[in-house]
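#lab-general

N.A. 3:47 PM
ok so I finally got the sequence cleaned up, no stray characters, all 146 residues accounted for. can someone with queue access submit it? mine expired

B.Y. 3:52 PM
send it over

N.A. 3:53 PM
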Amino acid sequence: MYRNIILTVSELGGRNLIQGTPKQEEALKEHRLPPTLLAWSAVLFCLFILSGGIYNILESPPPLIPYGDRYLTLDPRPGEQTVYESVFVFLSNAATFSGLWVSHRAAQVAHDGSRANRYLIAGMALTLMGVAGSYLTFELKRAALG
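B.Y. 4:20 PM
back already:
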């Protein structure tokens, strides 16, 4: 199998299909994404996965569940979730991550005491809000079961 690929490449004049021409390589070097953008993209992707984004895409759950004469935004079944539930979990996880990141930033500005204290308090508050949101979701699911 590999021999056929090598023969095909050599038949095309020996050019490497991945590299392209030098002009194309130079243009590609100019269009690199900044490392900060890549890092934040990875964080957002992980938050999307943790909140059940893939489940939402594959299963297309309802945003609300009819329950008598009212609607539930939290699916009581343990293996299921609604769209609003996944958005709430995403926001809770994002608040937790943001709080930890802001707390980390407090250590980087330790030379400015009042700024470091503000960052640390804001980071702790965001982290507690995110953890409380996740805890609330777990408790509501657990209470719905029984």
